[in-house]
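Pasting as-is:
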Amino acid sequence: MPACAVEDGRSLTGDFGTDFEMLRELFRLDGTFRFREVRAGAGMRCALLYLDGMVNNELIYNAVIRPLLLSEPAKGDPAQWLLETALYAGDVKVGAKVRDLLRALLYGDSVLLVEGAATALLINTKGFRTRGISEPENEAVQKGPREGFDEVAMLNLSQLRRRLQTPDLAVEVLRVGRRTDTMVFVCYLASLVRPRLVREVRRRLEEISIDGILDANYIAELTRDHAFSLFETTGSSERPDVIASKLLEGRVALIVDGTPVVLTVPYLFCENFQSDEDYYQSFWVSSVGRLLRYVSFFLTVSVPALYLALLTHHTRLLPTFLLLSAAQSRAGVPFSSLTECLALIVILELLGETGARMPQQLGHTLSIVGGLVVGQAAVEARLVSAPMLIVVALSGIAGLMVPRLRGAVLYARVGMVLLAAVLGLPGCFLGLTVIAVRLMGLSSYGVPYLSPLEYPDLQGLKDTAWRLPWRFMRTRPAFSRNSVRQRGGKRRE
């Protein structure tokens, strides 16, 4: 089959033999291509085309082939007559374009060519196996739903519709990728989302010109506002409940066929510190967790730099006993404090990356045991000082609280360390200022990245650094079309 045959704009000729041979020629290199010629009512020739492994063979026999053999002579248009009187399949469409037939075949449908008809019948006979619904490993919760998305987009849509049982849920289908022709479903609640946001999402998807889309991250990178930003401006999740909650806030969700990850836009900085479980437990517990995540972000970025600045440029600011302890621990260490700090950061990242690539149980063991063994051995061998090891380890542990900012945290941590080594405490303040200014300059589909922290108000802060009770969260985010979430905050008896 030609590489871009799915873009074929030709129509069927209406000649049974010609159309049949044309489709066979397109799939001449595909060993799974199957066809079955059938004589319908009054000897009318029909050809059923499908790809082996993509269809339900039992459904093909019971809903297509058997009714054709028992059908009566056609009256009028043969294809329309079979559609209305013979076929038992529930989902049957009429197609006349070659690209429509190819898309149907490649997605698990069957194509029925009928003698004397200039159109073909596209029959839903999908029967390929799926992974099944299971809990996402990266978003496991103690409380709340345990369902996760699958690689099949239609199954993901069904999970989403179970939670949003309203006709207000709009779903648009776009095709992205010249060779993969991947389906991307644009989902939103029509009464809550701003029309300009939908138009912007549609425009960015239509402007994508690439051979293939194999994962949702392709879409995220090709449509993001700032191509080289360290901070993600497109949200993602594998949980239907999370995506449903985003849609209820006036966002747009992108379901990419072939991946369990669903994208949401716009995506704000405060969402990096929100957990799926925050809304399934007491707001007191959730608020404590939120504050700890913000504190952890500050610690993981600044603690190594602050310690290095005090140790190398501002020793007078350290208590005497702490200074003496640090000097004693560094006795015999052959490397400078900067080299020592950077080496520990690299080793910490190596252990984390290795643990992530290993099997789950073995990976956790490797990260913990490896860190303990390597760290203790390095201190005893006088390769690193114990305080520096503690500081870098504390920074790494704090970074685990904000996994969505892992990439940005790593670069920011190293940059802060380099500035602190050269300028001391002013370098630390300069680094924090650069990060803050950069965050203020980011946006996600036209929405300021720091919203609602950039222009704070009482209702906008209700779900940021802390989570207020649901009775007080009366409005949606400012970018929503309809801001009213609930009419009153008082409990009704």
